[in-house]
Amino acid sequence: MKLKEDMNPLLLQVFRSVVWVCSFITFLPWYFLSGAGTNLDRARRVKARSVSGRPAGPYRATNQAGGIHQKLVWSLHLGVDTLDKVMVHGATRFPERDCLGTREVLNEEDELQPNGKVFKKVILGEYQWMSYEETYQAAVCFGSGLAALGQRPQCNIAIFCETRAEWMIAAQACFIYNFPLVTLYSTLGGAAIAHGLNETEITHIITSKDLLHSRLKVDCISPVRALLTERYPSWSPLPSDIAVIMYTSGSTGIPKGVMISHSNIIAGITGMAERIPDLDETDTYIGYLPLAHVLELSAEMVCISHGCRIGYSSPQTLADQSTKIKKGSKGDTSVLKPTLMAAVPEIMDRIYKNVMTKVEEMSSVQRTLFVLAYNYKMEQMTKGYRTPLCDSLVFRKVRSLLGGHMRVLLSGGAPLSAATQRFMNICLCCPVGQGYGLTETCGAGTISEMWDYSTGRVGAPLVCSEITLKDWEEGGYYSTDKPNPRGEIVIGGPNVTMGYYKNEVKNREDFFVDSNGQRWFCTGDIGELHPDGCLKIIDRKKDLVKLQAGEYVSLGKVEAMLKNCPFVDNICAYANSDQSYVIGFVVPNQKQLTVLAEQRGLRGSWEEICNNTDMERDVLRIITEAALSAKLERFEIPKKIRLSAEPWTPETGLVTDAFKLKRKELKSHYQDDIERMYGGK
């Protein structure tokens, strides 16, 4: 649905006038105190400059007065230079403050679906909280128990567990006792799990009962001997000691273990915290992304460093409409009412599409009111104003999807589409801090400032890092390009990690140390730096394919453009260098495709609809129209597609836990379709 182009100008003017009069009468004092001018100045100011004066950089963040930071920042609190001290800092300052919260499971039921499948539904109670002091003491005791079981300082220990309070307690125990923590995604395949465990030579695994039997395939374990009653002394780590060996879920090949020191993470969370305005102990964060992912671990450590509450959730229980929540029961956001949340674009895209589908189903009057309010608020935001009347009357119900109190959303893991970002800003009434970082940089690189409502950009470098652009001749990207410098993004700073575990070849390829002793990481992503110092991700070296006729196609760019199509829930573009066109694998939106099938008089199961060649042809036509509207070149538009009845989830092994496409696995999965679409079979 187009929210701007199709709007009647007269209706918009009438709506604007009515809202202005109401706002003048009801919210006049607020407008004088809103600081709209200050917000505009903040949004428009230069946020980073080249230290060298050269277009290639390095670029560093500026302070509020416009000066370049002379030194990269690496510590949040004086003397807090290791992760165990972050927990001690929180327990000392906020001993009675709620720290980690978990909802009580009141009941579980099996619910039969119309298609014959059985879904497990839960009824959950209130959050039960551990204070900062209780959390710290639990971590000390757990660490002492691990020592009693033979775990020794600077010897690796693995955690293989879902995101939950026990994960964080176990991690804090390892930080306190200087046990390097090996993190593995709970959705990794068996070969990847075995690789990580064998490579790091661990002797102990921290896991849950469910994963012990379902993923580690252990049917019988010997009884654990009673822990010694004496408490083992902790072994404080040094800032340079390894805190975490984090195995990436890996979009290609075998996962790599990234060695992250205590000082690396401290620097990363210092940079992240600086971009979250007014962060303090009154904030509540909802944790549901995999803690084995650097985005979630860093976000939760930011919260602990500021005394925030962390309430745990899961993608299946997040909202009232989530898959495991029994109808009529409340999801986690409704109960917790969080103010902070980290999210990957895949989840925000789902929220956006679901709400827009409901808008399409509204009466013409309701839909017109919604679109008027949407466009009015978009216009006001560009002027630096907020719209309390629209927020209260029109967007309150949408905002309640995430509890109604959300004030900052952090987005990472993949690019966020402009349409979804605008939707989150407008309908959820909170800014989206879109960030860019990698496991190799502790998730830190850039984050957009909260009052910057521009789209398609990931903000300026954080105060802990700096960025240079390296020419990539093959792709045609140079720092001397006009109007803006372009090139491979290279990140430097104290947040750049120690390298890959037992992989010197990749370390030499991807990391280097400059003459000043600073570490740098070559990301493989292509960026463009705007005049205000903000970065835009425009390509990826691995995603660039040269077609038979010599044209270069950025698969990631094609996917990002086409994911905005209402018929597309997910898409993977594919091309061979010995072929002249692009093909695509599409997970279609079930509601949209079902309606289209009914209009065509097609009956059958969901699998039969997706496998129907007429449906493929119709969806390809719709996608082509969307591609042309997005101004893709003809050679970039897929000429053939395959509809997938099965959604791509981390459990299927076709996407990572951050929902990035695993191109190698997708290629293998659809190999027969690739041969058919390219071979004409």
Automatic annotation (TrEMBL):
Residue intervals passing through the bilayer: 12-33
GO process annotations (BP): long-chain fatty-acyl-CoA metabolic process; neuron differentiation
Record-given protein name: long-chain-fatty-acid--CoA ligase
Alphabetized GO MF terms: long-chain fatty acid-CoA ligase activity
Keywords linked to the UniProt accession: Fatty acid metabolism, Ligase, Lipid metabolism, Membrane, Transmembrane, Transmembrane helix
InterPro entries attached to this UniProt entry: AMP-bd_C_sf, AMP-binding_CS, AMP-dep_synth/lig_dom, ANL_N_sf
Organism expressing this protein natively: Oncorhynchus kisutch
Superkingdom: Eukaryota
SUPFAM superfamilies xref list: Acetyl-CoA synthetase-like
